[in-house]
Amino acid sequence: MIRLGLWLLGALLLGGIVHLATVLLLPNVATNDAYARVSAIAPVNSVIPVPPPTPENALMPFMDPAFATSVCRYDLSRAPLKFSVPISPAYTSVSFYTRGDVAYYAINDRAAGRRVIELDLMTNAQRAELPENEDITAADRLIVTSPTTTGLIVIRALTPEPGWTPAARSSLAAARCRPQ
Predict the structure, then answer these.
(1) Where exactly are the structural domains of the chain?
(2) Taking CA atoms, which of 24, 57, 124, 147 is between 20 and 30 Å from 10?
């Protein structure tokens, strides 16, 4: 009986180790992740609309059909990025992801407190090169530091009713994502 218990305990431990290793390693070895799928349709440092999700096909995971979505695939290797998007009538959110699909910053229209969400995106090295200027305060200039040189910016605008979709899409169409 003890021998059977030890075999079961060993099998559970081995199964747990294999499961944990798979869960931790799978995102790093996946070849068809969100960044790869967006790379097929999005040029670097420009905002493009994402087609609405269908049950059979969604460009990115966890897309909600109640949101109009646009995406900017960025590359900070040459220069920092200037990003801006006017807020939509209902709700607007902006999320930043690394190349490995790790979210590192998010902001919405209520947190921005303005009619336009504007920020500068740069690496730690680019931020260190900024001159210290007493006239520019944190309230005047929002600077987001990216942990990697490449990644995605996902912009979502809520469409609570189908009639709001054109207004949300026009707000996203006015978004800008360009090098400084």
Answers:
(1) 1-30, 34-179
(2) 24
Strand partners, 134: none
- Structural Rg of the chain based on CA atoms: 21
Determine the pLDDT at residue 136. Answer: 55
> Distance between CA atoms of 98 and 74, rounded to whole angstroms?
10
Angle at 33 between CA 39 and CA 84, to 5 degrees: 50
The CB density around residue 122, as the number of other CB atoms within 10 Å, is 22
Strand 67-75 vs strand 150-158: parallel, antiparallel, or unpaired?
Answer: antiparallel
Token reading at 124: 């730690």
Note the pLDDT tens digit of each residue in 113-141.
Answer: 788 999 999 999 998 888 776 455 555 67
CB 63 within 8 A of CB 156: no
pLDDT of residue 123: 93
Report long-range pairs for 94-97 (Cβ below 8 Å, ≥24 apart).
Answer: 94/153, 94/154, 94/155, 94/156, 95/153, 95/154, 95/156, 96/121, 96/144, 96/146, 96/151, 96/152, 96/153, 96/154, 97/34, 97/35, 97/151, 97/152, 97/153, 97/154
Q: Which two tokens stand for residue 144?
A: 């987001």
Q: According to CATH, what is the number of the domain 34-179?
A: 2.60.40
Largest CA distance in the chain: 77
